[in-house]
Amino acid sequence: MSTSNLGKITFLFLVLLTLSTCSCRSPDYPTIEIPDYPLVQRIYNHVWHLFRSEITDVSVNGKSTRVLLSDENFIVQNKTIYTALFGVYHFRRSLIKETLDQFYRGQREDGFIARVYFVKDGTPLHQPSRQELLIHPPLFATAELKLFEVTADTQRLEKVFKVLKKYFHWLDRNCATHLKGRRVDLYRNSVLGSGMINLPSGDYGEGAGVDISSQMALFAKDMAKIARIVGDAEAEAFFKEKCNNISRNINEYLWDSETGFYYNVDEKGRFIRCRTISGFWPIIAGVAKEERLEYLLSALRDTTKFLRRFSVPSVAASEPFFHSEGFYWRGAVWPSIVYMLINSLSEYGYYSLSREIAWRLIEVICRVYAGENPSAGRGKVWEAYSPDFVAPATDWKNECFCSSEVSSFVGLAAISMVIEHLMGFVPSAPEDKLFIRLPSRMKRWGIKNLHFGDNIVSIEVKRSAGNTFTFHGRTNSFLNLVVVWGNRKFFFKFERGNIDFTLIPSYEKLSQQ
Predict the structure, then answer these.
(1) What's the mean pLDDT when you consider all of the chain?
(2) Which CATH fold would you assign to the domain 175-301?
């Protein structure tokens, strides 16, 4: 973000303060302080406000409960899962659990879970058919593992494991595809089911999709992790083998060595060559072969393809289908999938690239929110953004802007991305551990009342000349603190009480008070 842009955004932020309303109640989420980027902090609070406004009371089997509505009368699978991935930081995590449980309660005996349910009576909006499977990206296990990382609730994993096993097997039976006349561990989905309703190359018929196949590999990988946690060795072995089989087939059938990219294929195994965001799902699933990563990273770093002014677009700018205005999945930047991608880039060790992409996305969110585009209004967040203009993305008809003021997609950028990638705080409740990956752009940042497991941690970090970092804060219980600088890690242990120390990573000097 340039200095001139920051000055303009800061000025507009001060104007926004007069337009915003304040709540007198104490926040039920961790508060953050980023003095250098006040608008990021403002958007963070704004999205939490949207999140709270989406909570509703419903009666389920005569019992009153609270859930997160995706739409006025429905809960929608992909929106609920993406909300869960940032909603885990809400103190009242029962909201996330109860909403996920609504889908599990609606599971058919054969294992199918619908993508949309009516809240009032729990009935599915649609039933699947061979032609229209009506499934959303199967990421329940990913959401449950994220929830486990901030709750350490093994009993919940034991409870949901049985449900998710049945769902995996239903998908494996009904979504598996046949290429060149034989069944392989690759999968298909419809354009409507994938959620990417106008994505070029999204309609591949009875062929195989790189997004759904990678999502199934990730599902199997996550299920193996859950099986290990709950102590089911047989299931762990099964899911590991399944993940390996799917990964092998993704790399055998869906990788095009001629262009260096992953594509969907038709039923005859022919590539549908169009570089889209789907081609990065093998990175997200962690199944992309090491030697192929460089090709994918090259596309991510290429300003003529995916490294646009605001990244990452859903279609490469070099493709004839690309639209700078967004046009939904024909160019728009979707915070949900960008968050998933930068998470995986970090796991691969590409921290610099992941943070650059994160900042490019945060910049457009800030500038649109600040009102630089009068037609988009001031003080609003949107489900997707233009890759080239300070504007929300246009909708699937390319006639007006997409939806605004819903938390499900933008929350992953405004909350999880800010906490985990811009500020570098990543909690692990099962280990009583907090990772702090020191960011490169901030001079001072902090978080208060970060709840994970039985830990409540508040910590502020200040950076001074010579990359000297001072840490001040407090923990209510035993804490393992891991400070990460580049590829180096520094380990500290604190009992209940104050956190005070100074670290100079380049000289390995440490002063603990």
Answers:
(1) 91
(2) Glycosyltransferase (1.50.10)
